[in-house]
Amino acid sequence: SRGINAEYGGNIIDGLKKSPQAVIPIVLKRLKSKDEEWCEARRQFSKIWNEQCKKYHLKSLDHQSVTFKQTDIKSIRPKNLVTEIETLYDERMEQVTEHNKTITGPHITITHKDHHILEDARALIIHHLRRQSHLQNEEKAKVKLFLNGFLQDFFFAPRGDVSDDDHDTDEDSSEEDDDTRSRGSRASNKGGTRRSSRKADRPAKSVKLTPGDSDAPDAYNLFFANDQWYAFLRQHQILCERLFQIDTYNRAVVEQELKDRKSRKEPTAQAIKMRQPNPMPVEHYYNHFLSLVKDLLDCNVEPAVYEDKLREMFGVNAYIAFTLDKLITHIVRQSHTLATDTTCNQIKSSYLRHRAQGGAGGSLSTQSARSTAETTYLKETEQLLSEHNLYKIYFYKQGSKLTIELLDGEQVDETENEEAGRSEDAGQGTGGTDKGESMDTSTT
Q1: Which of 36, 42, 170, 221 could form an SS bridge with 361, CB 3.0 to 4.6 Å?
Q2: Is 357 exposed, middle or buried (0-12, 13-18, 19+ CB in 10 A)?
Q3: pTM of the entire predicted model
Q4: CA distance 255 to 125
Q5: How far apart are CA 24 and CA 408, in angstroms?
């Protein structure tokens, strides 16, 4: 009574003691009125509480997303990716000094498990590229040609459509497309001197790889690159890895759904009205996810709504896709650098020229015959990048394995004697000798 009638609580208590027969009917009437008032308030607040529970139910189960987003946005930057492999390099050098022995092999090993994911990654990158209003049409055409041609060739994947359906090309890009078609599926007509002196490029010659080079089951590509190329390949690998993980989660959901569709009862969260059933068939989750990523890149959906929709489909595993827009933005920026920067283009042209001459990959079974040519390719790139980091990158068609090693001057001198042994190991599925501190990442 004191709580209900705080101002007159003391008087009511005294009245109940002195004249209960007169006070009790008044108190009961007041209590009934308050009970009805509280019941109505509870009904009104229940609607709000239910909405809040439905809204934050899945988010309350996601304990990893906040920390992940904070750390991932930093870790996918090119500078941090370079620092990552430099740390692995320093750790290996400490082992060399401590144990007084030679340690060779890649610092990072990546396995691509599904070439279809490469297509999805390429489609997302190009989708975002087309909407970069600050880029000229010619620049977009160069980046698209790089993504659809060079990158696909390097991964032994089918070339993408180089048609310019978004009308963002000009005469220069059309000429590049014509050159690409005339080269064949694994060739390039870009050549030129790759020395550090400022001499003009030599006239380009049309080159074409023999079918045995790229069509052999044991084919591989050897690429010597700088920080920009390394950062792009790592960012591209991270994107493919996350798409593959989401696709794997979707496959697991579909498999479980098909298995339990007839016998499974209604999920508990839906039964207690904390979660609405998703009307979309689970078979369409992955394609819908790709559409959501594009909407996020186009600013057609709020990040919070995007995250909630992913949680509805993939539960607590969805957090790995929360920063895909930032990652794809980095990739588009990095791919633009590769397509337009002079040094990066010199590195690419040098690779294409040596690849056509048998000095940047081929069949593992005939690798020993290319040892001298591959060493010449290494020395040429070393001279071009004399004051920068030099990376040795292999991609093996058999097993779809990518290996990355950061080289120093002494390692460049030792590489001549290691090529044959490393390639033999790769042919056995090891992707190169890896005896020191390294990072192994399985992706698409």
Answers
A1: 221
A2: middle
A3: 0.72
A4: 29
A5: 94
